[in-house]
């Protein structure tokens, strides 16, 4: 049986007007698959993707059911039984949001997939639980990751114009012409500065005045709800995670000093390491490890906040170097492997080496590296192997 409150809630949510702008993932998902998953950070727009598809798929509203696993009415509801009832009543599309809130969800999804001619699209925010559960789904589910907005997507939302996404090799080989193309439509640095402060999460459009408080709520919910329950972190330890975020916001992006970091947070390194893994899974931090051939691979070399908006939400004066590196890693990390490098700041896909800096950054440090590039901030258009930082926001 489907509780009436769930049917009513579904009807209300499906009737809401959704944003016209569709994120890049819409074109990458094969909506012909029977079981589709979307994972990503809180607030990145997963629910909107579900609902936009529901409104454009051509099905009658009665054949679509949207449920959120964190709804109070879902506490004692069996997912398989709910799907069976929905299917028997003529249902065709089942949307399941916040599925990481349901322990053992993979068993239910597997049974639903194997039993009913019913399409299921689910979303979840907590990566490690999703990865663990999804391993049990074998080849039954096609799972996509939705990152925060790219600078390109932000500019499309802000201007109503369309901008092409560029592959990394194209940016490296032809960055001056690509930058000039964008400059014909808008002022990239102006948009870039806005993006750094509030462009990573789609909900910025609801209210700029309340954006910081909503982002802080996302941070607190991720730590106090998602991570605390998933990793059984005691309530008195949660403040240590928040303290760590503040430390990353206000300090230089230097090589990790384990002793200093452990002392600053007030916990041992083994415990802190577990915390870091959980925060990485919750899309709060990037753990950037050393590339091949470098020393120890068991400990992170660099820690960065997941995206630049977190800096402005957490501290009044973000560290400029950390801000730049966070943007670079967040934009490249979705489609590429990014590691720490002993000569430059980062090595991408074990090939290209990048040194990040301000407008005066030169290639001196990477002069003898054939695939070495300087990534420069506050520059609209680059020259040679000096590439504007903002242009790396055009990758997806």
From TrEMBL:
InterPro entries per UniProt: AAA+_ATPase, AAA_14, P-loop_NTPase
Keyword terms: ATP-binding, Nucleotide-binding
Residues annotated as domain AAA+ ATPase: 32-148
Pfam families, per database record: AAA_14
GO MF, one example: ATP binding
SUPFAM superfamilies, A to Z: P-loop containing nucleoside triphosphate hydrolases (SSF52540)
Domain of life: Bacteria
Protein name: ATP-binding protein
Upper taxonomic lineage: Bacteria, Pseudomonadati, Pseudomonadota, Gammaproteobacteria, Thiotrichales
